[in-house]
């Protein structure tokens, strides 16, 4: 569980980041920050603040709200000529 002090530090850092980049916070970003904070808060520590368990990884899956346009060089290339004919089934 995260302490209120740590929660306010995370919120403050996020707010300062948004202000420095002139960005508006979005709902999905807030959820992402909350999930990362929950993952960090689940790490067990001793009295000195050292991790008790094995190392862990927090992964964040992201996708844009609008799909990015596909560059022209990645468009499928049409056949320059027709494909070779299939052999008849009797030839198998």
Explain this structure.
The protein has a domain at 1-48 and 55-62. With 92 residues, it is mainly alpha-helical. The chain has helices at residues 4-21, 27-41.
List keywords for this structure.
single chain, 92 residues, mainly alpha, elongated
Topology overview:
Layout: H1 4-21, H2 27-41
Strand content: under 5%
Oligomer: single chain
Rounded radius of gyration (Å): 26 Å
Shape category? elongated
Number of helical stretches of at least 4 residues: 2
Q: Given the helix and strand composition, which structural class is it? A: mainly alpha
Compact overview of the structure:
The chain is mainly alpha-helical and 92 residues long. Helix content is 36%, strand content 0%. The protein has a domain at 1-48 and 55-62.
